[in-house]
Amino acid sequence: QRIWASYGDYDRQMFERQCAAQDIPYPFSATHLNIKSLYTLLRGLRHDVGLVQAMTLLELPVEGVHHRGDDDAWNTALVLAKILARS
Fold this sequence. Notes:
two-stranded parallel ribbon
């Protein structure tokens, strides 16, 4: 029932594909926040930027290993927190 978020649409699509492939119900809400698009809009950028570049522009330290699920989740949460704090 709750909104969920990821940096870009890839994760949402991957979850949907994996659930369909394994014939299991999709466990998340249909309401998804694409943080990459939100960041692009709020910064007035012409193009999306990757997670590491967004973190650099926001002066946030990149923690852990990029493209490792749990590390990317933490870094994505940092980006969202910074965006919300500035808004």
